[in-house]
Every structure is written in structure tokens, then in C-alpha cells.
Amino acid sequence: QVQLVESGGGLVQAGGSLRLSCAVSGIVFSIKSMAWYRQAPGKERELVADINEDESTTYSDAVKGRFTISSENTNHTLYLQMSSLKPDDTAVYSCTADTLFRGRFWGQGTQVIVST
Q1: Which of 13, 27, 28, 56 has CA atoms 20 to 30 A from the CA of 114?
Q2: Cα–Cα separations (whole angstroms), residue 43 to 4, 11, 14, 60
Q3: What is the pLDDT of residue 75?
Q4: Are 78 and 67 in contact (CB under 8 A)?
Q5: What's the pLDDT tens digit per position in 9-66?
Q6: Helix, strand, or coil here: 107?
Q7: Over pLDDT 70: what percentage of the chain?
Q8: Of 36, 89, 87, 39, nearest to 62 (Cα)?
Q9: Coil, helix or strand at residue 115
Q10: In this structure, are residues 93 and 38 in contact, taking their beta carbons and an 8 Å threshold?
Q11: DSSP letters of 73-105?
């Protein structure tokens, strides 16, 4: 079974930085793209950033210039480097992997809390 496990979340002061990781395990499959989503309490889940197999990336306007998404080709580990964090960044961050034939896989998420 394919599994995604996020780590690196925690409590950080506004203006600080965190690096989230998403480890991929399970059977070998073709990953077309990976992404980070986040969801704050009472709000809809939103796409934060994604990265395609050609390493092209996209970012939401809210995080553009502050967050960087990257991945390792060998084991597909996904990262999200977050800088200049704001209280509005507080949310549960989840990673996804889009595969060729088996659809999208989700991790359980890691909590990020940005305090003032």
C-alpha cells in the first residue's frame, strides 16, 4: 500500500521558518506530480504549491515568494520550505501524489501553528 507521511510541522513565531517533509513508501508506481495542500479550521482546503515531473512548480498567491516546493527524484520525498511565516499560514498541511493509474494519494497532515 502506498503511504505518504508528513513531518516537520510545529509551533513557530511569525517571521520564522519551517521545512516540511513528505516521505513516500510502498509499491513502485509512476508519480506524475506532487503537491502541498493546507486547511485551516473552518476553511476550505486550498492548494499551496505543486511540482510536476518536469520539475515545474506553481504557487498560490498567498505563499508566492515565501514558500519553495521541491522533491528528490530517487525516493520522491517532497519538501516545502516555508519562510517569513505569518499567522494566516496556520493550518494542517498535507501532501499528495498523483499517479498514472491509481489516482491521488494523501498523507494525514502535519500541523503548523504560527504565533504572533
Answers
A1: 56
A2: 23, 20, 21, 16
A3: 84
A4: no
A5: 999 999 999 999 999 998 666 889 999 999 999 999 999 999 998 999 999 999 999 9
A6: coil
A7: 97
A8: 89
A9: strand
A10: yes
A11: TTT--EEEEE-S--GGG-EEEEEEEEETTTEEE
